[in-house]
Amino acid sequence: MAEALIKYKPSVKGRAQLGVQAFADALLIIPKVLAQNSGFDLQETLVKVQAEHSESGQLVGVDLNTGEPMVAAERGVWDNYCVKKQLLHSCTVIATNILLVDEIMRAGMSSLKG
Q1: Angle, to 10 degrees, between the axis of helix 29-37 and the axis of helix 42-56?
Q2: pLDDT tens digit string along 42-96?
Q3: Which residues are CB-contacts of 31 (< 8 A; sequence separation ≥ 6)?
Q4: pLDDT of residue 81
Q5: Coiled-coil stretches, from where to where (predicted)?
C-alpha cells in the first residue's frame, strides 16, 4: 500500500503531497518494528521485502525467524482484510480529528490575544 501511495503522490498538488508521503512512511513502520524487535537489520529487511513485493506482486511479509521476506499466503498466514481496511480508515479519521482539534485550539488562542 505504501508503494501505491508513493506512485499516487505526484498526482496530488501542493502541500498535500507531504501528507501522502507521511502516510506512506507511516505504513512502513509495521515491518520496520517487526524486523527490529526480531533482532534483524530493519533497513536491510525493508529493502528485501519491497524487492520481493515488486518481483512477485503478492502480499509479502517478514519471516520473524529468518528476517527474510515471505509470501504470506504460501505460508498460511491469512489476515482479515476487512479488519485491516477498517483499521487504516480509523487511523486516518483519528489523525484528521486530532489535526482539526489542534487548529480549533490555535484559532481560540489567537482570538484571546487579539
Answers
A1: 130
A2: 889 888 988 888 888 877 888 888 888 888 778 887 776 677 778 888 988 898 8
A3: 45, 46, 49, 61, 62
A4: 65
A5: none
SS3 20: helix
- Across residues 20-34, what is the average pLDDT? 84
Query: Which residues, other chains included, contact 88 with Cβ-Cβ below 8 Å and sequence gap of 6+?
Result: 1
Q: Which residue has the cell 503522490?
A: 9
Instruction: Say what percent of the chain tops pLDDT 90.
Output: 4
The pTM assigned to this predicted structure is: 0.57
Let me know whether 5 and 60 are in one domain. yes
| Enclosing domain of residue 105 | 79-114
CA distances from 66 to 18, 38, 39, 110 (A): 34, 9, 10, 54
14 lies in the same domain as 42: yes
User: Where do we find the cell 501505491?
Assistant: 4
Whether the Cβ atoms of residue 42 and residue 30 lie closer than 8 Å to each other: no
DSSP state of 60: E
State which amino acid sits at residue 66: T
